[in-house]
């Protein structure tokens, strides 16, 4: 059984203890990434009845706070969890907009299919975001490169230890004011090559946005950080060390002829909404964009010969962040002191321009939230 937004009506329970205007202003003055949360959360529950029919119900916006879960809840044992990331942007006239929420809703459902979680109607996904942001609109920052990061997620809440898909599930959205993901001013980051660990394998969950993929990336991310790097690069060691993705973002290369290359969607990497938007925007800017296999050897040789002029990371959280150096114990490709590339920054400005209302949205990518 599928539900529509018409069937799912949100009730609103306002927080009795919202943060004070002073406390909020202090947070918004220096939001960082993912450290502070707004006053409310949106929730929609799902239950499968005795006849095997599932339905979404009890849609609500309620005060932000701890979730009460049975210790046997499926998410705690078998990791049946998926999530999304998108942002709410404040435009110059004070209005608040989000970017391609339908694309995030569709990807959530692809992830849900892979993780044997229920399909959530796209309208319910968007409605949950609208209702939450309507309540917490004072939390949307207006600084350059800042936004309210929205984190929708779905978890198995049924208490049951057999290994099977849960019959009780909860979809939730939380929100967190965000500045630069990597902190401070935007500057090229260093990336660590993971040789020992892979992020995903054929037939696995690499194309799904599930917590398990990120859990599996953490040991490599710790290794990266211990070598002074901000992110880790995962390769496919069974496919000529093809470049896959970073711990939490996709990768693009700008070649010396001005064209762009990004790893093709192989089933083991995430189809980033930012990645797909960059492909469209760059083509509109007159650039050729090719999705294909690109190996570590090609990255190394391309930087050495000048064939590769710029490299950047992209994602909702990272937006577009230049990559300066790629390294491991045996080699260094590029330079820590590299400057942000011109093409990288031009695409970043254009994409952020659309998101923040400074550049015309010719694709209908923006949805007004408040
Ligand atoms: C995002 O860009 O939204 C991500 O999910 C990356 C990371 C913060 C997990």
Automatic annotation (TrEMBL):
Residues 1-15 have a biased composition (Polar residues). It is an enzyme of class 2 (transferase). Residues 1-20 are annotated as: Disordered. It catalyses: L-isoleucine + 2-oxoglutarate = (S)-3-methyl-2-oxopentanoate + L-glutamate; L-leucine + 2-oxoglutarate = 4-methyl-2-oxopentanoate + L-glutamate; L-valine + 2-oxoglutarate = 3-methyl-2-oxobutanoate + L-glutamate. Pathway: Amino-acid biosynthesis; L-isoleucine biosynthesis; L-isoleucine from 2-oxobutanoate: step 4/4; Amino-acid biosynthesis; L-valine biosynthesis; L-valine from pyruvate: step 4/4; Amino-acid biosynthesis; L-leucine biosynthesis; L-leucine from 3-methyl-2-oxobutanoate: step 4/4. GO terms for molecular function: L-isoleucine-2-oxoglutarate transaminase activity; L-leucine-2-oxoglutarate transaminase activity; L-valine-2-oxoglutarate transaminase activity. Pfam families: Aminotran_4. The modification N6-(pyridoxal phosphate)lysine is found at residue 209. The keyword Transferase applies. Its cofactor is pyridoxal 5'-phosphate. Belongs to the class-IV pyridoxal-phosphate-dependent aminotransferase family. This is Branched-chain-amino-acid aminotransferase.
């Amino acid at each position: 059984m599928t539900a529509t937004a018409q069937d799912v009506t949100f009730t609103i329970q306002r927080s009795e203890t919202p943060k004070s205007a002073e406390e909020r202003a202090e947070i918004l003055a220096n939001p960082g990434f993912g450290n502070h949360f707004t006053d409310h959360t949106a929730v929609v529950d799902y239950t499968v009845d005795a006849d095997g029919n599932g339905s979404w119900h009890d849609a609500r916006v309620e005060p932000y706070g701890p979730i009460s879960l049975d210790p046997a809840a499926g998410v705690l044992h078998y990791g049946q969890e998926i999530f999304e990331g998108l942002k709410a942007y404040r435009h110059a006239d004070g209005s608040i907009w989000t970017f391609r929420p339908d694309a995030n809703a569709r990807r959530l459902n692809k992830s849900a299919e892979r993780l044997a979680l229920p399909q959530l109607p796209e309208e319910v996904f968007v409605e949950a975001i609208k209702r939450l942001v309507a309540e917490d609109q004072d939390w949307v920052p207006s600084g350059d490169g800042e936004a309210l990061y929205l984190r929708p997620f779905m978890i198995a809440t049924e208490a049951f230890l057999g290994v099977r898909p849960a019959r009780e599930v909860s979809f939730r959205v939380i929100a967190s004011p965000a500045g630069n993901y990597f902190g401070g001013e935007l500057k090229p980051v260093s990336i660590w090559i993971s040789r020992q660990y892979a992020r995903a394998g054929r037939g696995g969950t690499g194309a799904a946005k599930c917590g398990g993929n990120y859990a599996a990336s953490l040991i490599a991310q710790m290794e990266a950080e211990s070598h002074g790097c901000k992110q880790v690069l995962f390769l496919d060691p069974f496919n000529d060390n093809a470049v896959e993705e970073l711990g939490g973002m996709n990768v693009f290369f700008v070649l010396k002829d001005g064209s762009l290359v990004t790893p093709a969607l192989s089933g083991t990497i995430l189809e980033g909404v930012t990645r797909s938007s960059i492909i469209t925007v760059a083509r509109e800017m007159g650039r050729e964009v090719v999705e294909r296999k690109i190996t570590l050897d090609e990255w190394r040789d391309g930087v050495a010969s000048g064939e590769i002029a710029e490299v950047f990371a992209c994602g909702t959280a990272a937006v577009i962040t230049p990559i300066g150096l790629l390294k491991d114990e045996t080699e260094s490709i590029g330079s820590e002191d590299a400057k942000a590339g011109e093409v990288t920054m031009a695409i970043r400005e254009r994409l952020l321009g659309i998101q923040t209302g400074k550049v015309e949205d010719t694709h209908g990518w923006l949805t007004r939230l408040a």
